[in-house]
């Protein structure tokens, strides 16, 4: 068991660090930096480790929640955003550009695939693309207002 010294005075054992944080820092400097990053003034007490754990957990859950919110909003706004994210492309919302980017990326990735599992994965992505890039998801171009005269011409000619 080793001790970690912070600010030349406060010591924390590796056992306590592990029991509170679930891991042991690489050095006393790393522990000091963690305390500084989360605004915790070390006192040598186990309460410091509890505060550090709570601060780290709070930041982590905020980041995860933000990622979930971003994914949900992207998926709600752009039907193919999740598919593009799987291959490292951020959806722009422009159907033609995104569809082209997807096809280009899949073609390049498929060329570098060396095993059957990768090929099967890319085939499943192509299948998913046929659904999310289907005609029902393609934005309709705005049609001109149909006047009565145009209607008459179309239907009475």
Task: Walk me through the structure.
With 157 residues, the chain is mainly alpha-helical. It has two domains: 3-64, no CATH class; 78-137, no CATH class. It is 64% helix and 5% strand. The protein is built from seven helices and two strands; from the N terminus they run E-E-H-H-H-H-H-H-H. The chain has a two-stranded antiparallel ribbon with strand order 1-2. Helix 1 runs parallel beside helix 3 and helix 5 (95-112) runs antiparallel to helix 6 (116-132). The chain is elongated and about 65 Å long. The mean pLDDT is 81.
SSE layout and pairings?
Blueprint: E1 3-6, E2 10-13, H1 14-21, H2 28-37, H3 46-77, H4 81-86, H5 95-112, H6 116-132, H7 148-156
Antiparallel strand pairs: 1-2
Helix pairs in contact: 1-3, 5-6
How far is the first residue's CA from the last residue's CA?
94 Å
Q: What helical percentage do the residues reach? A: 55-70%
Q: Give the overall shape.
A: elongated
Spans where pLDDT lies below 50 across 5 or more residues: none
Largest sheet: 2 strands, antiparallel
Nearest-integer average pLDDT = 81
- How many H/I helices? 7
Question: What count of domains describes the coordinates?
Answer: 2
Order of helices and strands: EEHHHHHHH
The strand count comes to: 2
Structural class: mainly alpha
**Spatial ordering of strands, largest sheet:** 1-2
- Bin the strand percentage: 5-15%
Rg is: 28 Å
Please provide a brief summary of the model:
The chain has helices at residues 14-21, 28-37, 46-77, 81-86, 95-112, 116-132, 148-156, and strands at residues 3-6, 10-13.
């Amino acid at each position: 068991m080793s001790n970690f010294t912070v600010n030349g005075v406060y010591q924390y054992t590796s056992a306590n660090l592990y029991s509170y944080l679930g891991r042991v820092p690489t050095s006393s400097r790393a522990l000091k930096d963690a305390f500084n990053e989360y605004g915790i003034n070390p006192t040598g007490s186990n309460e410091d480790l509890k505060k550090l754990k709570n601060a780290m957990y709070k930041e982590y859950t905020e980041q995860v929640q933000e990622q979930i919110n971003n994914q949900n909003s992207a998926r709600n706004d752009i039907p193919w955003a999740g598919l593009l994210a799987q291959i490292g492309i951020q959806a722009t919302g422009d159907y033609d550009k995104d569809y082209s980017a997807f096809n280009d990326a899949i073609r390049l990735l498929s060329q570098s695939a060396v095993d059957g599992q990768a090929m099967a994965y890319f085939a499943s992505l192509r299948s998913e693309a046929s659904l999310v890039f289907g005609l029902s998801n393609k934005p309709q171009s705005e049609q001109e207002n149909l006047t009565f005269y145009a209607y008459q011409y179309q239907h009475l000619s």
